[in-house]
Design a protein that fits this description.
alpha/beta; 9-stranded mixed sheet; about 425 residues; Rossmann fold; single chain; 6-stranded parallel sheet; 15 helices
């Protein structure tokens, strides 16, 4: 088959949507399918081009057999409102034009985030009369209003109407968790129109390994209990809880415990400035790192923090950080309620805490620091669980089955697939 995949993010960007599209696409290519990805020049999250790239009208490259077509967009950092919307709209325009000009595919897939990337897929579907799979990784605009990034009620109402029209335009919808599926059904999407194919992990890349001693020494972490957060440091993450926990640990004299924040995003500079002002030497921010360096940073962690703000919407989320940490045998400290907590508890992979509760965070970290055998036990249980249920190879095959059904069933209901068989 010829598969056209529209995505706002793609490697060398290392966020979850970029990784998902890349991991799925390269596996489909290995099976003999042709995959064209239309995306931006890499610039997330700072809005600054990565070395070796230019923001040209069109530039093409081949990555692991994937035909990658990068189109011009208005560059903007992942913060603020007006410039970010200009960034999203510009990709909707240039991405949809590119989708109209490439060799005719058998199916078009468009993935969120971002919302307007989904609309680029709608436009390509309408003009080329193609089967269309809408991939929902974020409920927009609710996810934006949940963190206080948008307040204009008229704009929100308009976006909600566009949201429902986008769902109606899809031949089929693929989402990444049962919680998201429930949200879509609330928005009058038929359950049989939705398949769940979760995120997962590449077990060849993420696996238990010796701690990178040189990396630990470079960041002065040797001999300390390291609780690491690795990923986007955005508005939804609520990582000011780490600073509050750091203060509590200092007050208790626990200088053996260190928080390590690896990544970039809208909230990183504010957090870094606060750490500098307060002299919180038990909180270290190291900024964005190349994706291939992530396993090394996870190797020096004794536990991994996964955290989101305490919002009803986030109870539907299943963060991909869970899978990477668990695959490397690391116990998880989870500050996400709902579906994610159910998965971690079922797997026996970590300790669940109340989101934004620094007391809970300190208690969990101290417990793991004082009982290293517990951490090893939780880490091994989590690893076995993700290898069984969240392996990228199996998930890519599940997704491919959905694509085959969509291509063969345009105009008729497509049987849903659910890769959530725990």
């Amino acid at each position: 088959m010829r598969i056209l995949y529209l995505t706002h993010y793609f490697p060398p960007e290392g966020n979850a949507p970029a990784s998902r599209v890349y991991e799925m696409s390269k596996r489909w290519v290995r099976q003999g399918h042709e995959v064209t990805v239309i995306t931006c020049a890499p610039n997330a999250p700072a809005g600054v081009l990565y070395p070796g790239y230019r923001n040209r009208l069109v530039q093409r490259e081949c990555m692991d057999g994937i035909d990658v077509l990068r189109v011009w967009t208005y560059l903007a950092a992942n913060k603020g409102t007006v410039r970010r919307i200009a960034n999203y709209l510009s990709f909707m325009l240039t991405g949809s034009i590119a989708g109209l000009l490439v060799r005719r595919p058998d199916v078009v897939i468009a993935t969120s985030p971002q919302f307007f990337c989904g609309w680029a897929g709608v436009l390509v579907r309408w003009f080329r009369r193609l089967p269309f799979i809408l991939e929902i990784r974020d409920i927009w605009p609710e996810s934006v209003t949940a963190v206080g990034a948008m307040h204009n009620r008229r704009v929100v109402a308009l976006l909600e109407r566009l949201e429902r029209r986008m769902y109606a335009a899809a031949t089929h919808i693929v989402t990444v968790g049962e919680g998201y599926k429930g949200k879509l059904v609330e928005r009058t999407v038929r359950p049989e129109q939705i398949s769940v194919v979760t995120n997962g992990v590449d077990a060849d890349v993420y696996h238990p390994r010796e701690a990178d001693a040189d990396l630990a020494a470079h960041h002065r972490l040797t001999g300390r209990f390291v609780c690491a957060y690795v990923g986007t440091i955005g508005m939804a993450c609520g990582l000011d809880v780490v600073l509050r926990a750091g203060r509590m640990l200092n007050a208790k004299g626990r200088d053996d415990v260190q928080f390590l924040l690896v990544g970039d995003g809208a909230s990183r500079e504010q957090l870094a400035q606060q750490v500098r002002v307060e002299g919180l030497d038990n909180v270290l921010l190291v900024g964005r790192q190349p994706k291939d360096k992530v396993p090394a940073f996870l190797s020096i962690a004794n536990a991994c923090l996964v955290h989101l703000k305490k919002r009803d919407l986030f109870a539907t989320v299943l963060p991909s950080k869970i899978f990477e940490a668990a695959a490397m045998g690391k116990p998880i400290v989870l500050g996400v309620a709902g579906h994610a907590a159910e998965v971690v508890q079922r797997a026996g992979a970590g300790i669940c805490i109340e989101p934004e509760n620094e007391g809970d965070l300190v208690a969990a970290v101290e417990r793991l620091a004082d009982d290293r055998a517990l951490g090893l036990s939780l880490g091994e249980a989590g690893r076995q669980h993700v290898l069984q249920y969240y392996n990228r190879d199996t998930l890519a095959q599940d997704y491919l089955e959905v694509i085959h059904r969509v291509c063969g069933s345009e105009g008729t209901p497509v049987p849903a697939v659910s890769r959530n068989t725990e």
